[in-house]
Amino acid sequence: MLMKAESSSGQAQLKRGNRMALIRQLRVQPGQSRVDLAHALGLTKSTVSALARELIDEGWLVERDVIVTGDIGRRPTPLFVDPTRLLLLGTQVGIGVVRVVLTSLTGEVLQAQSASYDTSLDVQACIQELTHTMLDVAAECGEAQRIIGIGVGLPGGVDQAGDQLVFAPHVHWHQAPFGALLREALQGTPLSGVPVFMQNDADVAALGETEFNPGPSADPLLLVLVGEGVGAGLVVGGRLLTGARGLAGEVGHMVLQIDGPLCSCGRRGCAEALIGNRALMQQDGDAPDLAKAGQYLGVLLQNLAVAYDPACIVLGGPAVALGDALLGPVRATLQQYAQAARLPEPTLRVARFGADAIAVGAAALAGYRLTQPTLA
């Protein structure tokens, strides 16, 4: 009996893996036929047809008009990820503000809402406001729609194995069981039981660029988020690099200037102290030196490019709204270093989802976790 149970469990796991592989293949290359999918995934056409039938019935996939090929016989029917029935909820926990978006499985933002909370209170005060906002946004779902996953982008390191926010310096939260507290707050609501996934804000923003990008994704992709703090998310081979304790990407505390300005972490000369929001705001009546901040940001990106050799660097966060006053010196600095080393200049672009990069990225995190069988 035990051997049969193990066999049954293995078959169920294999089937789930094939189902999710089919979905992820169509996210990368939408419009493939069942025959195309069978060739791409190394499955039989009958297996793909059976899985596709299930996934269409459940709301994951949809068939579109047939492709006119000119060949005699039955034309192949293209399949796509269905953007209308199964939805994702993405939430950004910022400094004093929460942002919630409702998206399709392919990243279209259907609803969005923000709310403020008092940073002087504990984490539960934030979760209470976040829960209210999530329920308000979720109430906009149509009768035929269903939220299947919730993603949360947090302003600090996240230990996924321990389901904890390790440290969020700007709101002074330490070892907070954020996931458990949020699930508890959602008990007895329409979102009760919906899977909740959480990760650092820069990490989820990076996933948003790879999971919800209609074009071919750059690999590796490095996203640097510049706001109150400075963080980075790195996606390699479709996977996040999060580190042993969930603290990978805390690049805001890389030292760029010896004996520089004091940082929130207690050290001097960190990237955050030189290019974070406080450095970019007017101080003592003087206008901020955006050119200098842009140079420091360029130095940071140069160091990260040397460390990770990314195919593309993406800039996100509120600082991007400063435009060429900041980004011009960034590009000039990168170009200067590249020319000196006789190497190609790193590809640099702005985050696709702008101010919603974290919230939409959090929705992408939920989709990513739900469709990666080895991560679920």
From TrEMBL:
Alphabetized PROSITE patterns for the sequence: ROK
Pfam families: HTH_24, ROK
InterPro entries: ATPase_NBD (IPR043129), ROK (IPR000600), ROK_cs (IPR049874), WH-like_DNA-bd_sf (IPR036388), WH_DNA-bd_sf (IPR036390)
Family under the similarity heading: Belongs to the ROK (NagC/XylR) family.
Full protein name: ROK family protein
Taxonomy of the source species: Bacteria, Pseudomonadati, Pseudomonadota, Betaproteobacteria, Burkholderiales
